[in-house]
Amino acid sequence: MVKKAVILAGGLGTRLSEETELRPKPMVEIGGRPILWHIMKIYSHFGIDEFVVCLGYKGYIIKEYFSNYGLHLSDVTFDFSLHQTTIHRRQVEPWKITLIDTGFETMTGGRLRRVRDYVGDEPFCMTYGDGVADVDIGALIAFHESHGRDATVTAVQPAGRFGALRMSGDEVTGFQEKPGGDGGWINGGFFVLHPRVLDRVADDSTVWEQAPLEGLASDGQLHCFRHEGFWQAMDTLRDKRHLEELWASGSAPWRLW
After folding, report:
1. pTM of the predicted model, to two decimals?
2. Are 194 and 218 in contact (CB under 8 A)?
3. Beta carbons within 8 Å of 7's beta carbon, 6+ residues apart
4. Do residues 155 and 185 make contact, with C-beta atoms less than 8 angstroms apart?
5. Mean pLDDT score of the chain, rounded to an integer?
6. What is the Cα–Cα distance from 130 to 35, expressed in whole angstroms?
7. Which residues, listed in sequence order, are joined to residue 222 by a DSSP beta bridge?
8. Radius of gyration (Cα) for the chain, nearest Å?
9. According to the 3-state scheme, what is the secondary structure of the chain?
10. Distance (Å, rounded) from C-alpha 220 to C-alpha 17?
């Protein structure tokens, strides 16, 4: 049933301004490829190859990237005398990508509302364009179909940022480097949604994480898929460097493909 993934890629990314002055946050590179590409590769690994990307801030850069994507990954001959271009070897994924301008100042809910005509009538995946994880998308979709509600959100427990001390009085009895969070589960993106949830979005000013999600929860239409594996949002330069280090190590947890 689930064949499409919607990716929010229109925000300003102000907390990563060192990178986002010249490009949108989803185009910030990890290992030489935009984080948006990494997210799409995760979905593609589970057979989802059709994407609707919600553009906003500097969205034209995302359009230019994908318009040249096949060319950059192919062997090619340019014959200027005949005005011909010949592609010899194409190494691209079987993706179908729809890029929609959803406005510069539109909020997350409003961006989803603006792509309503492109998602169809079947449930679809949705996530943010700045976070990667080793989520089992197949299991996520199966879970969503099993409970029959309108929405599923992936719940995650992010790692702590600082080392934790175990103490007995004034004595330190142990130390744990960057332990798990405080036990709370947070919105990790990687949703599965029925299109009717978009009826809960009033206009461009609607924040998806406020009235729509709160309404779904109060109506008993929101379930969570608990993911205890790797998850990381790229909110700051520190986060970007962490993801770069993982990729360079050759063992990036989200590289499922």
Report:
1. 0.91
2. no
3. 26, 36, 39, 40, 51, 52, 53, 54, 126, 127, 128, 129
4. yes
5. 93
6. 6
7. 151
8. 20
9. CCCEEEEEECCCCHHHHHHHCCCCHHHCEECCEEHHHHHHHHHHHCCCCEEEEEECCCHHHHHHHHHCHHHHCEEEEEECCCCEEEEEEECCCCCEEEEEECCCCCCHHHHHHHCHHHHCCCCEEEEECCEEECCCHHHHHHHHHHHCCCEEEEEECCECCCCEEEEECCEEEEEECCCECCCCCEECCCEEECHHHHHHCCCCCCCCCCHHHHHHHHCCCEEEEECCCCEEECCCHHHHHHHHHHHHCCCCCCCCC
10. 38
Residue type, 30: I
Cα-to-chain-centroid distance, residue 199: 22
Instruction: Identify the pLDDT of residue 178.
Output: 56
Structure tokens at 198: 């978009």
Buried/exposed 104-141: b ≥16 CB within 10 Å, e otherwise: eebbbbbbbbbbeeebeeebbbbbbbbbbbebbbeebb
Stretches in the chain below the pLDDT threshold 70: 161-183
129, 228, 229, 231, 248 from 134: Cα distances, Å? 15, 10, 6, 7, 17
